[in-house]
Amino acid sequence: MNNFHPERTVSTEQLPGPALYPLPLGVYVHVPFCAHSCDFCAFYQEEPRRPDIERYLECMEREFASVTFPRAVDTVFWGGGTPGLLPAHDLERLGRAMLARFSSPPKEWTIELAPPTVKSDKLAVLRDLGVTRLSLGVQSFNKEALESLGRKYSLTQVYAGIQQIRDAGFTNLNLDLMFALPNQSPADWRRDLEAAIALNPEHISTYCLTFEEDTALWVRLQKGAVTRHNEDTEAAFYETSMDVLESAGLAQYEISNFAKSGFACQHNLDTWRMSEWRGFGPSASSQYEGRRFTNIHDLSVWQDGIQAGTPVLADEVHLTQQLLAEDSLIFGLRTAAGVDMDKLAQRFPTVDLTRLASLIDTLCKNQFAEVATPRILRLTRKGRLIADRIGIEIMEHL
For residues 334 and 95, what is the distance between their CA atoms, to the nearest angstrom? Predict the structure, then answer.
């Protein structure tokens, strides 16, 4: 969610001030520790050695203490890695250090868990801290599919973990699922969706498997040990997601996300609308106070920088109206609500949105998009299937 092309060259035009455009404020915390690396995963992670965890927590306390937030933090998201891998006392320590910097509790606080990490003592700590939303990385309810992804847990652990989450009193649960897995059939995917729905989660996220370079799955693909589905088959999987989940009362509010009424992830919505967020931890990205920057993807180097008082960044750009307008449009179109073009023009008055007129006309004529009154641009179901291509077209035109 933090991949916002930091390498792009941008101009230095003046941005609107925060007084004109008060934006929601989020916090992202990256916990880099994983018991093992799944075959498909390209996220930054480290093995959970106790000395490294201890030093990580000390440096997180320092990094939190280095920031004074000018207004209330609305949402929090802890990702990884596997945040739930931390013992209960470490979760409490990390949470208390973060909350000490807030003027009030966040309205929404999400933490990612893997099925084997769900424990009653951890859930009790998270509940007491004020966590409101849990996201469980299930990926599939098929034993062979899990093995093909290198997921080291059983379906028994999945079901037991969900029961523990409910028993602990959590009423906002997301399940992550993946489709277009090696050897997966459309019928297999439908069964996965139906198994998830039967557990009555408030939210389901569905992602198409991608073969990221330098992952074990990519290596297997290059050796011919696995094959990938073609684009038409991936599209068929995706359309099955829309049909099955929406018929079950989970409305699609973004390309990959479906939720019951009132349970859309506000942190992600604010991110897609180009609000502000501050990231903490190695590899965490921020969009904050006119800059977009990412902490170094190296636990040791990040720790050294924090302890020296000179944080080490992997990427940094100064935000401009042009850059934010592009991203507001590209990511906004991924949402079912679409983009209010009049409000976009008001927020970014120096950007000439009329340059998009011919593209919007073409998208509408080909039924990839529609314009509703008052000037709400949104993708159709057909357009959602090629959202990435449309994003590239927007960058080329704007």
Answer: 31
